[in-house]
Amino acid sequence: MNHDDFAERLRVAEGPVAPDPRFVDRLYVELAGELGLPSSRVRSLPRAHTRHRRSLALLAAAVLLAALAVALAIVGSRLLQGPVVVTGSGDWSTFRGDAARRGEGRDGPVGAPVLRWRFQANGTVPEQVVVFGELAYAASDDGVLHALDVQTGEERWSYVASEPPLKGPAVDDGMVYTFDGLGVLHALDATSGGERWQATQALASPTSTAIGDGMVFAGTGDGALVAFDAEDGTERWRVAISSTGTAYAPAFDEGVVFIAADGRGYVATDALDGTPMWSFDIGEYSGGTAVVADGMVYAFGSEPAGTGMLWALDRATGAERWRIEQPIFTPAVSSGVAYAGSVGLGVTAIDTLTGEPLWTFPTEGPARPLAVADGVVYVPADVERRVYALDAANGTELWRFDVDAQIWCCVAVAKGAVYVGTQLGGVYAIEGRVDPLTPTDR
Amino acid sequence: VLAAERESEGPEDFVAICADEATFRAWYDAALPRVYSYLFTRTGGDHALTEDLTQQAFMRAIRARASYDRRAPIVAWVCGIARNLLTDHHRQRAREERSWLRLMVREVEPDTAGPVAERDAVLATLHRLPPLQRAAIVLRYLDGLSVRQVATAIGKTEKATESLLSRGRDRFRQQYDEVVR
């Protein structure tokens, strides 16, 4: 199909559309006010704005849908004879779930944990397993990226780096982005694994990437923040965040990149060109992964002696809202509560408004970057070789699932399962199973 | 409104239009549906987004009324502002920092509307495209911009824009088939 044919096909969608009369009047009043004109000819002033009415309508629809879902769930559970396996459609496309690193999934397991599948890689899986569409992507430190069927664990394709290990990966719009051992960024076709492009210049010790506004952002070991064009790998811009220390994994949220670098603290930069907007000094502390959620940026600082700090900063200005003087990592955030792991303090749930701890859950050794989905917190307990599921409301253990070795990174929650990689190369998909009600329950 | 402009002795004086209530209301009543329709197609049939962008476009237009340069009908100028807002929306970037492109836009002709079902399918398909692909596709194929102009508008290289368009076309075909299935 040539240019004209395609354009012709699209133009079918052209044509007049009548705006809502209430919107017409509302906007007229606003414009007349701006111009200092009287607005005597307004036909009918709405009592409520369109958006408000739409919100109410959506709320009503949501309530109805929720009621319908509950009804269907009850009826369905009574009708089904076999185990109920719940699956869904959420993705977990990058380190800590999304570019803002919120750590919030939409579709975790429901019921008791069972192994959906386990894949064996030939090297440690030290990084985030990401899930997008029908595939889970796991990089093992022998330089192989495995694309696994989320339902069966079958390997659909693999990509072997010329220089291991691979850093990342992250998936966006049909492409997988990953750094090789030399620090060169590669873009692969997410469906086939075919290489689409590779960057022409290597970065020194690049971090996990964040993707947004058509760019791929990464920090470097020499304190820089670099932006690549996601379509062709062209370097769009590069700024020195720190001249003396390493930079950590950036977060992207609505046109702004947030990143920490030793010797500088946390910095917000314009995604367009890297122009700094604000910075927050964390003194002699080392930084960590920035997390952006609900108008706040979470910043972590640690010292070799084992002390540390978690700050909550105003997203727009970088002003401190509150701090907790404990060595706890930047959190996963959902519904006004931040859930943070730590090296030795287990899991802490924190009220994001006040910074007050709500509950704690102990683990032996580090609780790695965790995930929260649908009222459940999933905790990768490194040396315990185990994933915990906790009730987000009070920290009560719902279940635990043992894996074969230490968990060096984090969990992903998507498509009705929890995914985790281990030191011995195990990649696990843990799903939920709900036993059907027996006839006597009727 | 275009006819009124053409019948006038010279290019419209937008500052004068904005100074008189009756004149402004007449212009507004004629211009609003055209800008709204322009955006409605290009947002993939998203009424809420169309309202937001229409509101911003008109507000910006009247605030910048002194800078209207009379090279195009006022409504086409407002559509140009709307297009920049839409492109910026897709790029999710700070709108105030960007200079607006002053490109002529295709006028919406009432007789170009296709069959309702097909139109809805195209709108739904456009709505399913990722933001940047949608921006590139509508600028290239609905507004008839060159690849270089599209690249400038969305802040990409020409090579990257060609790639976006190619993938956008592929995705459009694939999604369209799913929409009508």
Task: Please provide a brief summary of the model.
Chain A is mainly β and 442 residues long.
Question: What do you see in this structure?
Answer:
- The complex is a heterodimer of chains A (442) and B (181).
- Chain A contains three helices and 34 strands.
- Chain A is mainly β and 442 residues long.
- In chain A, strands 1, 3, 32, 33 and 34 form a five-stranded antiparallel beta sheet that branches. A five-stranded mixed beta sheet of chain A has the order 2-28-29-30-31, with no helix packed on it.
- In chain A, a hairpin with a 2-residue loop joins strand 32 and strand 33.
- Chain A is globular.
- The model of chain A is unreliable at 43-60, 66-89 and 438-442 (pLDDT under 50).
- In chain B, helix 3 (21-42) packs across helix 4, helix 3 (21-42) crosses helix 5 (74-91) and helix 6 (116-128) crosses helix 9 (158-180).
- Chain B is globular and about 50 Å long.
- The relative contact order of chain B is 0.11.
Please report which band the strand proportion of chain B falls in: under 5%, 5-15%, 15-25%, 25-35%, 35-45% or over 45%.
under 5%
The number of helices of chain B is 9
Give the integer mean of the pLDDT values of chain A: 86
Summarize the helix and strand pattern of chain B as letters.
HHHHHHHHH
Instruction: Bin the helical content of chain A.
Output: 10-25%
| Annotation, overall tally of beta strands of chain B | 0
Sheet of most strands of chain B: none
Helical proportion of chain B, percent range = 55-70%
State the helix count of chain A. 3
Shape label of chain A: globular
Averaging pLDDT over every residue of chain B, what do you get?
Answer: 78
Radius of gyration of chain A: 24 Å
Q: Please report the distance between the alpha carbons of the first and last residues of chain B.
A: 40 Å
**Biggest contact:** A-B, 47 and 64 residues
Class computed from helices, strands and strand pairing of chain A: mainly beta
Strand tally of chain A is 34
Largest sheet descriptor of chain A? 5 strands, antiparallel
Beta-sheet strand percentage of chain A?
A: 35-45%
Structural class of chain B: mainly alpha
Quaternary structure classification: heterodimer
